């Protein structure tokens, strides 16, 4: 009989009590002796060069010890993106960063750093540094940066285009020739910020072994270690990265931001601990953002509603530095062919340097943008052709066993139709449609919108997917699970512990995981991103647990002088094939450590180089009421239905969906990082940047269409990022259907709706 509290059950997160009681230690909570504090001096122009510094007033601030500039730093360029290392240089992200710079590429660029005995002194001193600049023209949009006479933002390139690619399938001209109708449209999505509770923070110092220890709130400990080595041009093993509890990341901490500078400050202080902690204003304005993108598209349709051709041109606003280079933008093209059957397809995308904050990874990695585009476009076409929202999409969705020629992946567990059917049923779709038609109000309108999505699990075959894990049998028969995978609040350590418990047939409570990931002791794992951990790291844990299970059985056979092929580990007991009790797991553990003749320490190892990718699918329905006088949108009901394979922990799964929906709703309605005409951020605080509170959000409803994916370790697929991909287009489509007017740009703020009311609301 299997033990309880394993895969498929809503066990309590192992870290829940520590977090809700305040006992959890984050980076700022870890004490270090004689800690110093550093604050960054940021440029007050948007593009140009630093000519001179005047530190006289800054150095007079009590507590200031030292001020460092570009001249004090190593000159090695490095990439900040948290991607696996490419053995082929052509596959690596672009190396365009220095620890500090004298070439200012955005307002707030990092040009110097003040080290002081306390944080307040360092911040005051940083504000007193005077800088003389040679200014250059600056560009806030891709179109400006691509103008004929634009100055180069990065001098080693021929233009401000970071990368330009075209992906195609079939014959695009033939597809349009065979179409009965051709539709064109343009769409735009905004810059969004992650706004994780814990801003970027790191502390660096020289350890007892003369290596550099970096305590950091990072999603990518092992990759961070490598990037530090590249930034300083020394052995990667010269660094030890320790990740404590993390207060959120959502992709922002998949980039290396402050850690190299933190190490440089400690080096300048002979190894004394130095901490850099960004303020919320700095974190919002100067770290990483979601890419702003503009889509121009043409779609060919047959008279019966079948897609014949789709041609898309995309401009992606990269900001000042490469970060994840072209990967975020190019991913979207491939995902479209894993959602709809499009025989003739072209996806042309330019990722363009501009003089704003660098865009990098954010929950969804380019797919919220492209899903807003395609699902808005599909809705516009359905309305013009007289199809209802479900009917038009059902004619074109991919089926099981579909092959994506761009991603070279065949899908073996597609349940998109089932998601649409279940969403329609749970939402009482037909009843709500009648309610919308029958709703009468002088200045309020109601509408329903839907959207579909598809999403990858990990990055294969476009990137390396590898993970490892270690399972150790302790003296009392508990299991120490050692992971390189990074828990950043999503609950991955809990699910990975469930996987280990399931394989070993022991209670979930018997599996011990760490709150800290330490690159000196944790097995290698590339980190927390791409909704990969239960799929890739989960398989590594499964393999480690199987390895340990086999060793436990062999040890029991040795202790009892039996044939291991006749023994089974079940429910923390060794039994024979007849079900007879042989010995307890506790007895095996004690004998493995204290039996003088036969003791052998039992450790299971698991490594997984993943060469599969299983896509998740889903449907969102939104029911809204639009107040045309105030412009306010009220979400009356919203539902996400997901095909994520087998659900490993239902409570954590629903929590993931709620969290993603909570980020996606303001993406549709309120969130946008804004700049003035000089390139300075206007709303880098939580008063002006409109993140919703719990009081602002509606009830968030979710459901799952469970099926067993053949490649997931327990039939599971991605879930962490997919919930972000659905609500924005569904809400937009609901507003469009309510007002009977197209709105092709988000966020759809009250101001935008108010300006449209003469056209749409006053009949």
Written description of the protein model:
The chain has 763 residues and is α+β, with helices and mostly antiparallel strands. The protein contains 19 helices and 29 strands. It is globular.
Labels describing this entry:
eight-stranded mixed beta sheet; 27% helix; 29 strands; five-stranded mixed beta sheet; alpha+beta; 763 residues
Beta-strand content: 15-25%
Annotation field: number of helices: 19
* Cross-sheet strand order for the largest sheet: 3-5-1-12-9-10-11-22
What is the helix fraction of residues, given as a range? 25-40%
Structural class: alpha+beta
Shape: globular
Radius of gyration, whole Å: 27 Å
Mean pLDDT: 96
Taking pLDDT < 50 over at least 5 consecutive residues as the criterion, the unreliable ranges are: none
For the secondary structure, the number of strands is 29
The biggest beta sheet is recorded as: 8 strands, mixed
Give a summary of the structure in a few sentences:
The protein has 763 residues and is α+β, with helices and mostly antiparallel strands.
């Amino acid at each position: 009989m299997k033990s309880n509290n394993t895969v498929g059950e809503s066990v309590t997160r192992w870290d829940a009590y520590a977090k809700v009681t305040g006992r959890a230690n984050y980076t700022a909570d870890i004490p270090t002796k004689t800690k110093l504090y550093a604050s960054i001096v940021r440029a007050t122009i948007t593009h140009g060069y630093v000519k001179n510094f005047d530190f006289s007033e800054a150095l007079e601030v009590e507590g200031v010890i030292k001020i460092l500039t570009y001249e004090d730093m190593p000159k090695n360029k490095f990439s900040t993106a948290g991607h696996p290392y490419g053995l082929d240089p052509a596959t690596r992200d672009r190396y365009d960063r220095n620890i500090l710079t004298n070439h200012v590429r955005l307002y707030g660029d990092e040009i110097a750093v003040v080290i002081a005995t306390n944080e307040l002194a360092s911040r005051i001193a940083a504000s007193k540094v005077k800088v003389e600049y040679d200014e250059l023209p600056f560009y806030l949009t891709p179109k400006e940066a691509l103008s004929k006479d634009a100055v180069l933002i990065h001098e080693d390139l021929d233009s401000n285009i970071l990368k330009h690619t075209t992906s195609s399938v079939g014959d695009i001209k033939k597809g349009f020739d065979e179409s009965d109708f051709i539709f064109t449209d343009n769409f735009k999505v905004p810059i969004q910020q992650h706004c994780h509770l814990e801003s970027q923070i790191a502390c660096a110092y020289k350890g007892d072994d003369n290596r550099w220890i970096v305590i950091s709130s990072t999603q990518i400990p092992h990759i961070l270690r490598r990037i530090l080595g590249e930034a300083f041009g020394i052995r990667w093993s010269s660094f030890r990265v320790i990740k404590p509890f993390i207060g959120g990341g959502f992709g922002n901490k998949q980039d290396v931001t402050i850690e190299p500078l933190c190490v440089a400050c400690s080096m300048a202080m002979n190894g004394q601990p130095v901490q850099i902690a960004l303020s919320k204003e700095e974190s919002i304005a100067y770290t990483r953002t979601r890419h702003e993108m503009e889509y121009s598209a043409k779609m060919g349709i047959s008279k019966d509603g079948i897609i014949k051709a789709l041609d898309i041109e995309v401009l992606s606003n990269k900001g000042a530095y490469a970060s994840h280079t072209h990967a975020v933008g190019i991913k979207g093209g491939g995902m479209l062919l894993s959602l709809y059957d499009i025989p003739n397809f072209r996806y042309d995308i330019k990722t363009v340097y501009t003089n704003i904050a660098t865009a990098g990874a954010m929950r969804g990695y380019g797919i919220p943008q492209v899903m807003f585009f395609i699902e808005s476009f599909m809705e516009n076409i359905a309305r013009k052709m007289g199809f209802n929202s479900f009917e038009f999409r059902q004619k074109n969705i991919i089926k099981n066993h579909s092959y994506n020629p761009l991603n070279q992946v065949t899908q073996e567990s597609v349940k998109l139709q089932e998601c649409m059917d279940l969403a329609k049923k749970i939402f009482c779709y037909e009843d709500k449609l009648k309610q919308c038609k029958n709703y009468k109000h002088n200045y309020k309108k109601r509408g329903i919108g839907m959207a579909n999505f598809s999403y990858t699990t990990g990055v294969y075959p476009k990137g390396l997917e590898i993970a490892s894990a270690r399972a150790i049998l302790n003296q009392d028969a508990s299991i120490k699970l050692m992971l390189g995978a990074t828990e950043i609040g999503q609950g991955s350590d809990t699910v990975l512990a469930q996987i280990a418990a399931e394989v070993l047939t022991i209670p979930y409570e018997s599996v011990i995981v760490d709150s800290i990931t330490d690159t000196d002791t944790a097995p290698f794992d590339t980190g927390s991103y791409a909704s990969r951990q239960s799929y890739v790291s989960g398989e590594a844990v499964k393999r480690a647990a199987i390895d340990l299970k086999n060793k436990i059985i062999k040890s029991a056979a040795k202790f009892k002088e039996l044939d291991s092929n006749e023994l089974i580990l079940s429910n923390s007991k060794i039994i024979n094939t007849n079900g007879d009790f042989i010995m307890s797991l506790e007895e095996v553990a004690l004998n493995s450590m204290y039996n003088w003749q036969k003791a052998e320490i039992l450790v299971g190892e698991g490594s997984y180089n993943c060469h599969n990718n299983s896509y998740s699918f889903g449907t969102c329905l939104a029911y809204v009421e639009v107040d045309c006088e105030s412009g306010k949108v009220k979400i009356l009901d919203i539902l996400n239905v997901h095909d994520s394979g087998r659900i490993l922990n239902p409570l954590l799964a629903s929590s993931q969906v709620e969290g993603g929906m909570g980020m996606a709703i303001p993406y549709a309605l309120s969130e946008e990082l804004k700049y003035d005409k000089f390139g300075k951020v206007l709303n880098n605080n939580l008063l002006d940047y409109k993140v919703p509170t719990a009081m602002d959000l509606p009830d968030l409803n979710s459901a799952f269409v469970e099926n067993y994916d053949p490649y997931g370790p327990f039939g599971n697929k991605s879930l962490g990022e997919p919930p972000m991909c659905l609500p924005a287009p569904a809400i937009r489509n609901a507003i469009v259907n309510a007002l009977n007017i197209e709105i092709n740009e988000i966020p759809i703020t009250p101001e935008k709706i108010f300006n449209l009311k003469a056209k749409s609301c006053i009949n």
